Amino acid sequence: MNLRIESAAIDSLMVRLFDEIDEANMPWLMAAGEKLRQAFGAQLIDLVPSYTTLLLHYDLHALSEDAAIALIQRSLHNLQPLTADTGTLHAIPVWYHQSVGPELTTIAQRAGLSPEQVIEQHCSRDYPVFTLGFAPGFAYMGLVDQALASARLATPRPRVPKGSVGIAERQTAIYPLTSPGGWNLIGRCPVTLFSAEHGSLLQPGDRVRFVSIDHAEFIRLGGDDTAMEAST
Question: Does residue 212 lie in a domain region?
């Protein structure tokens, strides 16, 4: 860990702990988040964790930038990581099928695997949630096995159905809402991940374990099995 504090706006500071994306960063980032919330208290407006940083938005009327920087430095002195399993573990069911995951076969062929082996590998580990972004409730997770790593589509789709599970580079994600998108789709999830009433189910520091289900179970859980075309 290498703490650096950078000005991000008149009332915001970027607290940078690392330079590279790594699952091992998360216990440090979560620990830093807890320390900063405790230290700033009511003077904290928002704290947004990401892969290597935390964006800290503070009350400019209560603190100067110099005072905020000093408070960050004091609160993170001798920081120790939280245990890796601090966040909630979510078991997320997925129907992996070519009709709703049109890149499933492409990824398998490129990796020299069968589609069943791709599914097995995708379900074989717990993925930490790095950050939320792009769309409400869109959780960036990783890291998938290097064999499954896949570049984003050259041309994003104008419409990706809600619940679609995808891979981009070594990250994986679930589209919480129907939206445009360029990730490689391998299946679909029937779980509601975001609502205006309850916000996002997944939060930074949580972990996700994907569980393969069959078509009947997917429909029973309320999934939409409308097929989609492969990318061109």
Answer: yes
